[in-house]
């Protein structure tokens, strides 16, 4: 019985009319499986390898907890991208710095309501602990650093 099965298998793949196509098809399918298995394995290995580092950094957190403290430069860039989404705000006239989660807004704005609006928008950015608002209107002195 085993000889019969082996003979049938050989005839299936060595058939002069269709054997080449069948061998090619099987080869393509096997190489596809190897690629998929290899790709999946690499992703799993990377995921498993990075797991201890993510846990140590506090990246994994229970649902609803606050995001870990950002470094100051990243926080300043995040605030800039959030508040300057609105084209109404004068991007080139406002300087944003952060130190230990406290964001300092400096510069000149054209309308008094923008001062409060910029401060409020800054406070809403995740990671901001406090805002020091040193914005001022044209022809008024800049507030002093507190």
> What's the arrangement of strands in the largest beta sheet?
1-2-3
User: What helical percentage do the residues reach?
Assistant: 40-55%
Global shape: rod-shaped
Counted by DSSP, the helix tally is 4
Mean pLDDT: 77
Written overview of the protein:
- The protein starts with a helix and ends in a 10-residue tail after the last strand.
- It is rod-shaped.
- With 146 residues, it is of the alpha+beta class.
- It has a three-stranded mixed beta sheet.
- The longest helix has 39 residues, at 19-57.
- Residues 59-68 have low confidence and may be disordered.
- The protein is built from four helices and three strands; from the N terminus they run H-H-H-E-E-H-E.
- Helices cover 52% and strands 14% of the residues.
- It has helices at 2-14, 19-57, 72-83, 112-123, and strands at residues 94-99, 102-108, 130-136.
- The protein has two domains: 2-57; 72-136, Histidine-containing Protein, Chain: A (2-Layer Sandwich).
- Helix 1 (2-14) packs across helix 2 (19-57).
Q: What would a concise description of this structure say?
A:
The protein has 146 residues and is an alpha+beta fold. It is built from four helices and three strands.
């Amino acid at each position: 019985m085993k000889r019969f099965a082996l003979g049938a298998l050989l005839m299936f793949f060595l058939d002069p009319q269709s054997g080449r196509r069948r061998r090619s098809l099987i080869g393509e399918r096997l190489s596809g499986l190897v690629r998929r298995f290899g790709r999946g394995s690499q992703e799993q290995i990377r995921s498993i390898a990075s797991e201890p580092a993510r846990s140590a950094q506090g990246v994994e957190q229970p649902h609803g907890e606050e995001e870990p403290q950002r470094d100051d430069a990243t926080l300043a860039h995040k605030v800039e991208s959030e508040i300057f989404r609105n084209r109404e705000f004068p991007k080139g006239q406002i300087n944003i710095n952060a130190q230990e989660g406290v964001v300092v807004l400096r510069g000149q704005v054209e309308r008094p309501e923008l001062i409060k609006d910029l401060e409020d928008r800054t406070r809403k950015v995740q990671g901001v602990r406090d805002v020091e608002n040193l914005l001022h209107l044209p022809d008024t002195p800049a507030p002093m650093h507190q």
